[in-house]
Design goal:
The protein is mainly beta. The chain is built from 3 helices and 17 strands. It has helices spanning 2-20, 150-155, 298-302; strands spanning 57-74, 98-99, 103-113, 116-125, 133-141, 159-167, 199-208, 213-220, 247-257, 262-273, 326-338, 341-353, 361-374, 381-393, 400-415, 418-430, 442-453. Strands 1-3-4-5-6-7-8-9-10-11-12-13-14-15-16-17 form a 16-stranded antiparallel β-barrel. The longest helix has 19 residues, at 2-20. It is globular.
Length: 454
């Protein structure tokens, strides 16, 4: 395949970079989340200064995943024709068992000075984009020793500053999701139905209190794809030229290891953008879904020509509410871990609209993950179950639709860098109009996935 060939051509370059740089993968970074099992259940990096700075260090790492899919889908939508496509656009693509397109990431992290770290991630191969794409990069300040101020140094013992193009820290779900080739933090194969993830240009400031409380405030450009071209579209709600307002987000939380066996984390997050060129908080993933081609139209696929994408419906199995012009959203998360048993819960309320709409629509999402890792002290095996439900109002349709997903997984960390998992998933679509391809929709089956992170 085209993508696989490109990845194979890129692999020697990656290896050359790895060998030629004066680095050792074993070297630790300050205030850093490892790209391996050691990174599990790490959210925002803490202020624990566990690594002494000696000199500039560079860490070159990567992620690679490969999956085997055994899913089947069905629907009951009425036959429908739509120009310029030929045939019934509501007819689903026939699925079979087979390997999906592998994905790979390249990660470069550098410790530039004591308390100053830079991170850069590139997607080498993915379902959505066949060519190499830079995901983003940022610099993180946990110390500002270059200012030669004891006052500032004392403040920075509790403060972290992040600047660049980074994962917007809205909610906790994005710390557990699969990100292209990086699936090692996710005990399941796919992300939530409404996937909250976007890289935007801006800054975040964190304050950490020793008691476990923390607060974050952030501002970004509200765009995945920045532009300097002046706005020209008219907002249907305001009848004014569209503005490119900044987006604001914040988080408050409590994260504490209550005892040697029990950890409690609870957070509340919010994100708002009043006017955007094209906000993508719910559609910022440039890699694609890990459920390939489910609930996808055969007719549209046949009539679509793409140069840089594996298929026309790269986000199959997900729901994007399309709040591209205006968005206000809130998420609450609860994380509990007692010995090997852990619970991760999500409640989310979002509302917004496209530029052609005059009123907001709403979407509400619930999710609960229950995972048991064993044996004690190693936790290199796990079993898990997930329930995820979404209710939303679609563009141009006053009816509320519902999507429900149940999933069960088992997994094994062969080493801290090599992981295998298997999942059974069942997803149903309710209350969709009979002219929509998702009417009476359902897919179920199994997924097998192998993942490497280093």
């Amino acid at each position: 395949m085209k993508t696989s060939n490109k990845f194979l051509r890129q692999l020697p370059i990656t290896l050359l970079i790895t060998i030629s740089l004066p680095v050792m993968a074993q070297q630790e970074m300050q205030y850093f989340r490892p790209d391996s099992k050691d990174g599990l259940n790490i959210f925002e990096t803490t202020k624990n200064d566990t690594t002494a700075f000696k000199k500039v260090r560079v860490l070159v790492g990567g992620n690679f995943e490969m999956a085997f899919q055994g899913l089947r889908d069905q629907n009951s939508a009425i036959p429908l024709t739509e120009a310029p496509y030929k045939g019934n656009v509501n007819a689903l693509i026939p699925l079979t068992n087979g390997f999906a397109l592998p994905m790979a990431n390249l990660n470069i992290d550098a410790q530039l000075a004591d308390g100053i770290r830079v991170s850069l991630t590139s997607y080498l191969a993915s379902r959505h984009h066949e060519d190499t794409w830079v995901k983003g990069g940022y610099v993180q300040f946990d110390k500002l020793l270059f200012l030669n101020s004891n006052f500032i140094n004392n403040i920075m013992k509790s403060v972290t500053i992040k600047v660049g193009q980074f994962d917007v820290d809205y909610g906790d779900q994005h710390y557990q999701r699969s990100d292209g080739g990086n699936t090692i933090y996710n005990p399941f194969v796919e992300n939530y139905i409404m996937d909250e993830f976007a890289t935007e240009i801006g800054g975040e400031i964190y304050y950490h209190n020793k008691c476990g409380l923390f607060v974050m405030g952030g501002i970004t450009n509200g765009e995945l794809d920045p532009t300097v071209i002046a706005a020209s579209k008219i907002d249907s709600a305001t009848h004014q030229t569209n503005n490119y307002d900044p987006a604001f987000h914040g988080k408050i939380g409590y994260d504490k290891q209550i005892s040697s066996d029990f950890r409690l984390r609870i957070t509340a997050s919010g994100y708002t953008d009043q006017s955007a060129n094209s906000n993508t908080l719910f559609g910022g993933d440039r890699t694609g879904s890990h459920y390939y081609d489910v609930m996808s139209s055969q007719s549209i696929a046949n009539g679509t020509t793409l140069n840089d994408e594996n298929d026309y419906n790269a986000f199959s199995g997900r729901y994007n509410p399309g709040f591209t012009e205006e968005i206000q959203t809130f998420m609450g998360n609860l994380f509990l871990k007692y010995k090997g048993l852990q619970f991760f819960g999500t409640y989310e309320m979002a509302q917004g609209r496209e530029i052609t709409e005059v009123t907001d629509r709403k979407a509400t999402q619930y999710a609960a993950d229950l995972v048991y890792r064993f044996p004690a002290h190693k936790e290199n095996f796990w079993v898990g179950v997930r329930y995820n439900a979404l209710t939303a109002t679609m563009f141009g349709d006053p009816n509320v639709v519902t999507i429900q997903r149940e999933a069960a997984s088992v997994g094994w960390f062969i080493t801290k860098n090599i992981m295998m998992k298997a999942e059974y998933v069942n997803q149903v679509y309710l209350n969709y109009p009979n002219t929509n391809i998702l009417n009476g929709g359902r897919f179920d089956g199994y997924m097998l996935e192998a993942s490497i992170g280093f």
